[in-house]
Every structure is written in structure tokens, then in C-alpha cells.
Design goal:
Rossmann fold; 8 helices; 5 strands; 14% strand
Amino acid sequence: MSTLVLICGYARAGKDTLADGFLERYGIAKGGIVHVNFADTLKDAGNTYLDAVGMFKEGDRDFRQDAFKVRNRRFLVDAGTFARSLNRDVFAEAFAAKAKRWEESLDNPLIVCSDWRYLNELRVQQAALPDWKIVTVRVDTVGVEAANEEEGMSIGEITREVPVDVSFKFMPNSAQLIKAEGKNLCRSFGY
């Protein structure tokens, strides 16, 4: 059975680090483990725009590079807001389409998503991937709070509406422990 792990939590809480634990486990895993995020489609669209105007440079002027993404976040925010004004579920639907492609190319894939921020993202996956095992995970780190009001509201809605399957609370500077928990969780799924 294909498995989707959706990880939510505030920025800097350890979501990507937990996903890194899954990927490190991949070296001894059976089947395929893929780290795909809802925002990947938006980053790729930003890179396509840069390429169209002759300004894309992989690894430098590239929305998949954190430093460039942070410096030019406003572009992504505006483009994402525009796309969601046309179809609220645009990124969730694109994610589900990617998941289906991975399912076709891998035997029982485990897809890890470390940027689950909105309730509709879960609902779209549940509707589009009815035969998948979908596991919800919440990551918190002591002292880490919502980066802004919008993040607080969206994660708050998830917290109120979805009883998460697995919840972690870490102390600051616990990257190795967070990765270890990611490996353990991956192993618990049989990978």
C-alpha cells in the first residue's frame, strides 16, 4: 500500500529535519521514499518564469535554493495568492497528481511532505488518493511559535479539526533526535 506522511508544525519546528530522517533511512529501505512538498509546484513555476525571461540560473537564481527563495519570497507569495484566487486547491491538486505518478513508477512508495499547512491540503489528498494510507504528523519545538498570524491560524485550524496520528514535541537544538525519530517512524511503516 502506498503511504503519504503529511507533517505540520510551525516554521523552524523541525519538519524538514524529521523528513530528513526518513530519507536517511532510505539507504536500507525497501521500496521508494520520496520527499515532495506542496510548495514545490510554486517554486518550479517561479523557476519557469525566470527561465522564460532568461534569468534562471540553477543553484543561484533558483527558487529551490533557500537563500534565493528567502530574498524573493514576495514573488512566491504573490504568485501563490494569485493561483489560489483562481483555484483554492491548485497546489493540493498538483501534489496529488505527483503522488499518483510516483505510485505508477515505484512499488508502494512512501511520500513524505514536510510543508502541510492547510486543512484543504489534507482533504484533497484524502479524496484523490482513497486507497493510500495517509498519516498525519505534528512537530513542535519548545519556544517555536507561529512565524506570522496566517501560519498561526492555518496550523490552529488543523489542530482543531484533525486528530493527528503522531505528535512530537522536541527541545531546541535537537536535530539529531528529530532525525532519529524520522528514521524510527519510517521503520514503523515497514521501510
